[in-house]
Amino acid sequence: MRDNAERMPLPGNVDARKFERRRAPMSAKLTDLKGQFVVDCTVRDISVVGAQVALPNGQPIPEKVFLIDLTNRIAYKCHVPWWRPQSAGLAFQETHKLDEDVPPQLAFLKEILIEGKLEQVDALTAKGNTLADAVQIAGMTGAMYIKWSSERVRESDLMERLWKLEVENMSLKKLVAELSAEDSAE
User: Fold this and answer.
1) In which band, very low, low, confident or very high, does the pLDDT at 78 lie, cut at 50, 70 and 90?
2) Least reliable range by pLDDT among 25-39, 51-65, 106-120, 159-173
3) Is 113 within a domain?
4) 73 belongs to a structural domain
5) For the chain, how many structural domains are there in total?
């Protein structure tokens, strides 16, 4: 009888969770529900109902977030039941497969995924991997990388062009104001 008693787990050591958690250190992103706040994180463990994430900079996060799993291309809408400066617990509310169509109001999730995957490729090539190897390690196809990186370039080109147009517009407004002032002085 004594042998059985010694083998029984102590009440404080029992894992009372209903769902099995997998240790799964993987790259992810957290964003608010509108995509305005984005932070890198690492998923420490995950189950069908939630996850624990490591936060690199101790920054507070909103009470409701999306966890974007870069590896599996899934976004989880989550409630944050607990937060500590270096980690947080997330309770899943909805799941969105980002390889499929998402509602228009959630299109920003795909943009964050794409930027995250391109960042992974950039980091891998900076560590000395060939571009082809980096693309494969990041879980992308060559065609996917070309498409996504060309969209990234177009977007940055558009922002640069917009900035130049804004500067030119301000210069033209100033010139028109000066010419108007000269005309009214005469």
Assistant:
1) very high
2) 159-173
3) no
4) yes
5) 1
Residue 129 has pLDDT above 50, yes or no: yes
Which run of H or E residues covers position 144?
Answer: helix 142-185
Q: Which domain holds residue 41?
A: 2-101
Query: Look-up: residue for tokens 């002032």?
Result: 181
Q: Give the torsion through C-alpha atoms of 102, 104, 105, 109, to 10 deg.
A: 50
- Interval 109-129 mean pLDDT: 92
If residue 121 lies in a helix (H) or strand (E), which one and from where to where? Answer: helix 107-126
Q: Is-contact 69 75, C-beta < 8 A?
A: yes
83: domain CATH number?
2.40.10.220
Mean pLDDT score, 35-59: 90
Kindly report the backbone phi and psi dihedral angles of residue 133, in degrees, each rounded to the nearest multiple of 5, phi listed first.
-65, -45
| 181 or 142, which is more confident | 142
Is 183 within the bounds of a domain?
no
**Cα–Cα dist 27/70, whole Å:** 6
Q: To 10 degrees, the CA torsion angle through 152, 156, 157, 163?
A: 160
